[in-house]
Amino acid sequence: MTSIGIVAPQSMFFDTPLPLQSGAQITDYTLVYETYGTLNADHSNAVLVCHALNASHHVAGTYSEDAGTTGWWDNMVGPGKPLDTNKYFVIGVNNLGSCFGSTGPMHINPATGKQYGAHFPVVTVEDWVQSQARLADALGIKQFAAVMGGSLGGMQALAWSILFPERLRHCVVIASTPKLTAQNIAFDDVARQAILTDPDYHGGDFYAHGVVPKNGLRVARMLGHITYLSDDDMAAKFGRELRSGSYQFGFGIDFEIESYLRYQGDKFSTYFDANTYLLITKALDYFDPAKDFGGDLTKTLSNTLAKFLLVSFTTDWRFSPERSHEMVQALVNNNRTVTYAEIDAPHGHDAFLLDDQRYMNVVRSYFERAYEEIDGGSLKAGASA
Amino acid sequence: MTSIGIVAPQSMFFDTPLPLQSGAQITDYTLVYETYGTLNADHSNAVLVCHALNASHHVAGTYSEDAGTTGWWDNMVGPGKPLDTNKYFVIGVNNLGSCFGSTGPMHINPATGKQYGAHFPVVTVEDWVQSQARLADALGIKQFAAVMGGSLGGMQALAWSILFPERLRHCVVIASTPKLTAQNIAFDDVARQAILTDPDYHGGDFYAHGVVPKNGLRVARMLGHITYLSDDDMAAKFGRELRSGSYQFGFGIDFEIESYLRYQGDKFSTYFDANTYLLITKALDYFDPAKDFGGDLTKTLSNTLAKFLLVSFTTDWRFSPERSHEMVQALVNNNRTVTYAEIDAPHGHDAFLLDDQRYMNVVRSYFERAYEEIDGGSLKAGASA
């Protein structure tokens, strides 16, 4: 395995309005994306990697010699890596409403000539998939070898399989869920309330005030972080370790876990946009493709054509293995080809980003088998889903 | 079972300074308390009920005809109830640093002539027990029939058994833990950070500014509430029910769970003191009696003399049954008499406040047996722990 090396983002402007699930539309927009590897002759080796809450199009490689600029799934994507860029042409795309280059709340609303701020329309997982499909069109990709993602990224992969069944041969859904539980929504809403009630939020127009709702974002991130780690992992990493060996009897830092979370919160509040945080948690809460099928996930997935890989992690209490079981069962009910791996990993939800060899091997062998459908740069006859 | 009827709080002033674990002291203080039932001739039927985070001395009965003034454990304490006030003399006491009458951050610091605010000293579970022991002295109670509490109240009961082994015959520890986990501490710290970074907190001196850090308290309470309920219970009660039948595509209220939590947060922020919230969560975080015994809970409990009743609830993920198992094991290691009930209840941590008949029956029969040690108003020979 070698590093993918230095990469650069690209961008594409779309001047056709995008109608949204809400009934609103985005007049025009830019999507920022990156690609790794080479698109083959018949464009059959493309894999779309969808990102989760705070990630971006920058999936793999670096922007400079600085390892701090490494992409968020660099352990997964690259030459010789589980998703092997010697074989596949991999695309990462920043979602609409995010804050890493694609059109979002910080950009100018053409209707007003001012920054969108809180007026950026609420976008859904399905809206993102529609915008990604346009990017695929523009890149000449009629059918992806796979659409893949973890967590919120897995929801996008699942939505692709429902909205565009003929446009992906494989659907890879990792550490995800067909819908959030009341507890998931509750955590999201506490985070949103922290941001919305921060006086520096200014109703979403904080850009004009030259401030950011740092305190709200910080609390939101601290809280989110707790749900990404398992109780056991937190106990193993931090336990009740004290920063300075004894209780301080004040409200500064006593425990290492406090130090860690506050650091994570502080860091996050310096680079992440508060309006984006609100938008993306709403996309999470709203995702529920079975809603239009009377809550019947089997019916919801009845028109899918892809083969599926699902992976869950035993200690993930955000999107627990039970949520993956629901998807597996619904796919099996439809006689779909499903590979399911439940990885006994201690790291909670974050496990999907980490190097567990069993997990990596599952994904690697899945993509190796999937590549057998592609022969000498061309899709074999009958391999199309 | 009849209601205990209308009750009234009493208060007692202590002019002897109370030395605290932190090394600081409280010069003088008032404890507010309530009593129910009648103290018998040899003062052997007294039960101390310790309260958790946001409760008080008002354990049972009402303050008026208004049922909204009912005490927080009225289902547990009263004539004919599991802790039967026809037999026992029950005392509820508001802890130091709380905001329901006993000396706390809103009161005047005699050293400065101003409200304590953030300068109220950090108090621990053990400090509370010391202050409660002085109240017991003043009421002429040398030995309690039992000290009892749920959650943080259970920690106080446990601390009583360690600090004053001869002063209680029974120790009743419900839905509690011998120490918080890293995840427990993490949730507490997020709540504290929400309060501390609310501009209306004013470094703890918000009283002088005529405001309260409502937004911080609200977020703290919403978050706390999530940890009091089980995932399953939240799913059963709220699921993904929408307030108005369809997505609003904004940041108002979509889901019933959001409405419920925001309501709980709003209500809490109108009556609870922010400095008290900080203090009480610190007391929770600091509680770790085994810390002075090299982390060995068996050693920690080796000097206890009481008999123990422990109760846990299967879906309590705040203080899970495993935490009770640790205490039971350490007590068994010391050949203590332990009754342990693990109640299969869906309601999470809050189950300790609710009417589960199996739970109520366990407590009822425990107190009935304990009362057999008391005969005709006098402790039987040999019954002393």
TrEMBL record, chains A, B:
Transmembrane segments: none
Pfam families hit by this protein: Abhydrolase_1
Pathway: Amino-acid biosynthesis; L-methionine biosynthesis via de novo pathway; O-succinyl-L-homoserine from L-homoserine: step 1/1
E.C. numbers: 2.3.1.46
Entry annotation: catalytic residues: 151 (nucleophile), 316, 349
Enzyme class: transferase
Assembly behavior: Homodimer.
Protein name, entry field: Homoserine O-succinyltransferase
Species, as recorded: Herminiimonas glaciei
